[in-house]
Amino acid sequence: MTCYERRDLGLLLLRLGTGGVLAAHGAQKLFGWFGGGGIEGTGQFMETIGYAPGKASARAAGLAETGGGVLLALGLATPAAGAAAAGAMAGAAAVHAPSGFFNQEGGYEYAASLGLTAAGLAVAGPGRLSLDHALGHTVNRGWMVPVAFAATAAATAVTVGARSRRLRKAREGAQETLFE
Question: The pTM is what?
Fold first, then answer.
């Protein structure tokens, strides 16, 4: 087995594993599969953690995870897929950050791991065992990587920033109620 074959096989395994996990998490949000809440239940949950409107947030997170995960697994549109999944995981990490790093304490470790792996795949590319390679890399060009990450970073900053403002206002409102 040559070095290229090993690398391609390694990228395939990373894509299948990471993409599969992301797609399953997204399917929980979108369809209620695997014990998930679907749009309705996930939307209600999203509202409680500061992402509003809840149903739109559930759809956005579910589409980024499901779509990004499926595309990563297939090795198709890898820059966009990896960036979208990384953005969704950044949003999840923001929710878990107050609990610290480790997942067993409710921290952001798991979301960060998935997001960094997706981002790494977007940058490294899908390898030769992919649809991108089979299609001549028409949706996997070098310039697409920074463009995909810039768009995702902007959308994630707006979304997480809006959530932070909502949570801050809610805390301020709760403190005013305590002092009345």
Answer: 0.91
